[in-house]
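Example 3.2
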Amino acid sequence: MNETLEPGMIVRHPNAPEWGEGQVQSRIGDRITVNFAEAGKQVIDGRRVVLAVVRFDTGV
């Protein structure tokens, strides 16, 4: 599921709802960098966590 993530997508971490929504910054292999509203920049191991897509932020 994480292989469809692209920069700009808004996601949630299923095991850390307190982090709020986050914007995908990059995805290199299984390493996904996300900037979360309440937790800042986090590097997620996509082999262990499947992020939930909220929406794609077009910036409009």
